[in-house]
Amino acid sequence: QVQLVESGGGLVQAGDSLRLSCAASGRSFSSYGMGWFRQAPGKEREFVAAISWSGGRLYYTDSVKGRFTISRNNAKNTAYLQMNSLKPEDTAVYYCAADNLGGAHSRAPEYDYWGQGTQVTVSS
Length: 124
Fold this sequence. Notes:
By secondary structure, the protein is mainly beta.
């Protein structure tokens, strides 16, 4: 079991950058796969990025490739999402998630634990 807390969201202009953090409490963070998802108003939750427990497997949705970077620091029990060149269509609540089996997944049902989300708003 793990508790996840996202931070780093905010209101920015198109072209700006944000770095989201996901701090995990509890033991064995290094064994969890971590993912980022987002949900915009009126839309379903969608996959953004994922990283395996070892950091050796990375996945991104096509719309963020080249702009977003997922990373993790197991010593700090924290996962990150660096978001560059933000666009208005990136506006959403961003959630981090953890998979206790350690994989990097694009499907939300594969994850066991979820944070409460952090709002990212990109104005034009």
